[in-house]
Amino acid sequence: MLSPQTPITKPVKLSVRDMDFRYGEKKVLDGLSMDIQAERVTAIIGPSGCGKSTFLKCFNRIHEVSSAVKVTGDIKIDGVDIYRGGIDEVDLRRRVGMVFQKPNPFPKSIYENVAFGPRLFGVKDRTTLDGLVESALRKAALWEEVKDRLKESATGMSGGQQQRLCIARALAVNPEVLLMDEPCSALDPIATAKIEELIFELKENLTIVIVTHNMQQAARVSDYTAFFWLGKLIEMDLTERIFTTPRERMTEDYLTGRFG
Amino acid sequence: MPHAPDTLLDLPSSTTQTVPEGPALEAASREPAFRHSRAQRLADRWAHLVFLACGLLVVALIGGILYFLAARGVGAFIPLAGNTDKVLTLREVFLSTNWDPNAGKFGILPFIAGSLTVTGLALLIAAPTGILASIFIAKIAPNWMKTLMRQVMDLLVGIPSVVYGIFGLMVVLPWVSGKWLSDSPAAGFAVSAAILAVMIVPTIVSLATDAFESLPLSLDEGSQALGSTRWQAIWHVLIPAARARLLTATVLGLGRAIGEAMAIQMVIGNNPQWIALMRQSTDQTPVLRLLFTPAATLTTELVQELPNTAAGSTWNNVLFAMGLLLYLMTMLIILATRRLSQRREA
Amino acid sequence: MPAPLPFRPRRFARLTDQVMRVGLWGLAAAFIAVLLVFVGVILKQGWPVLHLGFLTRMPETLDAGGGIKPEIFNSLYLVALSLAIALPIGLGAGIYMAEYAGQGRALRFLRLCIETLAATPSIVLALFGMIVFVQMMGWSFSIRSGAVTLALLNIPVITRVTEVSLLGVPRELMEASYGLGATKLQTILKVALPYAATGILTGLVLTAGRAFGESAILVFTAGTNTSQVFPDFRLTVPGETLSVHLWYVTSDGTLPDAREIAAGTAAVMIVVLLALNLLVRFLDRAIRRRTR
Ligand SMILES: Nc1ncnc2c1ncn2[C@@H]1O[C@H](COP(=O)(O)OP(=O)(O)OP(=O)(O)O)[C@@H](O)[C@H]1O
Ligand SMILES: [Mg+2]
């Protein structure tokens, strides 16, 4: 797949202004500002430990599940502040789905994994559920492989299948944004190609933010790329430009492997 | 150079791979101070056997308990040398509710039923509260509260049976009978089960907490990332994922409950004829009658009557048969937890 | 765009979440309250009885005013003896399981036996002790019958603690010892056991607490009487412990002040156990300090 054409500017879906992020006392993100456009794929790249995952988790506040964190500055979705704008984090997470680095299917059947989200929101009718499960699995390009074994345990699937199941699970609640944290790092090239193809199709009506350590992948799938270093945003631009004519010396060094 | 035998090198077999060759070897043999003495080598070999013997002693104990209890217990059903009394049929013992040793009636069904009732009631209290408390400890409590709850559980297990018993006898029984039963005695299953529940809850809590804490955080995150509340994640994902281990915790709690003797003996009322008594009395609802009729269990009856019976008598033998039954239940419970953990691994 | 989900208002789920959170805090508070009330009431009931005379007088059989001096002695003596019997066996079995048994069927079977012994009700151990030591060996109700049977209660706990503590010894440490040419026995005795010692000691204190509180076993092996000599170190005399005394005076009913004596005895036992608990915490902290 070639890198995408220079896209037409879309409305801003997520906007971040002057954000600081701390785990307890430890500052991990420092004065970040950026806009993420709707129905585009934005890639986040940068060396290990620079705060990419942390940044991603700010959009659905999932770090609050396990750690004590402190966020200052503004993060808005469709212009509404997600920390102070009266949005409840449970609602937010329904609208902002997430796919984790390691596939994390529930120890339930394939069907139950995908139906889990809709059930949470009160869908009980069997035919509606069946429909939602099938369409989510189709969108995740998994339907053909699993349609005859929906009742089997999800933990028995291959890593690539599990990751696509997790994507289907996230899609089944019809999110507006999909956050992907190194979704292919545990997968082989074939499974990776499948997921990249998927990302390409999904951006039709989803805003996607993807963290990746794989530069080719960022170049292949994303419209915009942001380069992080030590908790700071160094540069963000059209992916094509970042990879051909970066403005910052540091970005160029990182991309060419002359980092140090 | 030919491989030198161990004896020549004076080194244990486990280190022969690292034996230096050639000139180094000669150097080593000129340095007697660095060699293991014959005694050390012998000790190393014998130690293995000594430790093994300790392990085997435990195995022998398991078999020994079974053998000796069975040897006495079967005396109730088979004429053995030294038996002084008549023998009974299995039916007369295990399927009869008539316990009247002086009249030659040895039906132990009331005790079996009593043990099952008090254990069941205790589990009914202890399993849900214990599992909920473990959810609290593993998923909700801040660190200081986790530590505090662990402390509380440690202290609760540490309190001796008889202290639980005396608390029941001096505090709970008078309180219940004064407050709830207008001064009729409160001895029976209700108070016994309540006390038993407090005694077994730490077992359930500690195993269930381990179960929840060993689940990967990614399950919790996966569920909440879909927009579930924390409780929905616990209820729909974490509890099902931990189910086998929660069941194991409950079964081990059951094991502790069924074997407990002294605490219950002090508050249950020790009435072998409790089934008959319950049937006769009509002054209260059946549930209240079940909860507050003085009763007896396998363990309480052993504590109550063993000192009063002569070795070799039928009465005495039946009591040992009851002990054997308790032991077999223990084995069954342990095997059940084994099966559960195998299922978990599969 | 696919059709939007028929989302129901989420009020119920959110309410449940709040209710459960508050409810679980309440449950935890209830557990703490149960413990505090329990310990508080036992100490309060025992307090009026707890004077020096109570601790230093011999017990009475018919009259009021008896003490618990020999029972305190018997409790400590029996705990010490039973630990002395159980320690070498438990250590040996634990060492075997951690260092020699490998991972195969032998280990699984041994572990099954240890678990079974640990789960065996003490009343069943009491029956076994009564048959074998009291009757067959002819030791009758005595300190020695009690100590040996009580050891059966301790063995599985000590074994398990030893095994776990030894498995916690860093493998590099042991490999370093082997690397210096030490034998396996030397490595275990000189490297692994010292490292695991604090853990094993913690387990020993816990075991001592359990043995101290045990009553069912001792009623049927050490008996409900005590020697009139003090202190009586003979192994052949009956040795009623505190917990047995507590049970016996309440169930026997011949003493006019049985209630007071039971309350006082219970308070003494609680105080001892609280002290043991503090000791365990202290040891635990020592372990954590080292592994950090
Ligand atoms: N729960 C946490 N508590 C405290 N510090 C954390 C926590 N999670 C991450 N950190 C720290 O925050 C910093 C950023 O971590 P983050 O996981 O966001 O990096 P990353 O860019 O995703 O790295 P990688 O490429 O290795 O995934 C790191 O220094 C990390 O140690
Ligand atoms: Mg990361």
Task: Explain this structure.
The complex is a heterotrimer of chains A (about 260), B (about 350) and C (about 290). Chain A is an alpha/beta fold and about 260 residues long. Chain A has helices at about 50-60, 90-95, 110-120, 125-140, 145, 160-170, 190-200, 215-220, 240-245, 250-255, and strands at about 10-25, 25-35, 40-45, 70-75, 80, 95-100, 175-180, 205-210, 225-230, 230-240. Chain A is globular, with a radius of gyration of 18 Å. The two termini of chain A are about 30 Å apart. The mean pLDDT of chain A is about 90. In chain B, about 70% of the residues lie in helices and about 0% in strands. Chain B has a two-stranded antiparallel ribbon. The longest helix of chain B has about 35 residues, at about 40-75. Mean pLDDT of chain B is about 85; it is low at about 1-30. Chain B has about 350 residues and is an all-alpha fold. In chain B, helix 3 (about 40-75) packs across helix 16 and helix 7 crosses helix 8. Chain B starts with 5 loop residues before the first helix and ends with a helix. Chain C is mainly α. Chain C has a single domain (about 50-290), classed as MetI-like (MetI-like fold, Orthogonal Bundle). Chain C is about 75% helix and about 0% strand. In chain C, helix 3 (about 70-100) packs antiparallel against helix 8, helix 5 (about 120-135) crosses helix 6 and helix 7 (about 170-180) runs antiparallel to helix 8. The longest helix of chain C has about 35 residues, at about 10-45. The chains are: A alpha/beta (about 260), B mainly alpha (about 350), C mainly alpha (about 290). Chains in contact: A-B, A-C, B-C. Chains B and C meet through helix 3, helix 5, helix 6, helix 7 and helix 10 of B and helix 1, helix 3, helix 4, helix 5 and helix 6 of C. Bound molecules: adenosine-5'-triphosphate and magnesium ion (MG). Magnesium ion (MG) binds near residues 52, 53 and 181 of chain A. Adenosine-5'-triphosphate (ATP) binds next to strand 2 and helix 1 of chain A.
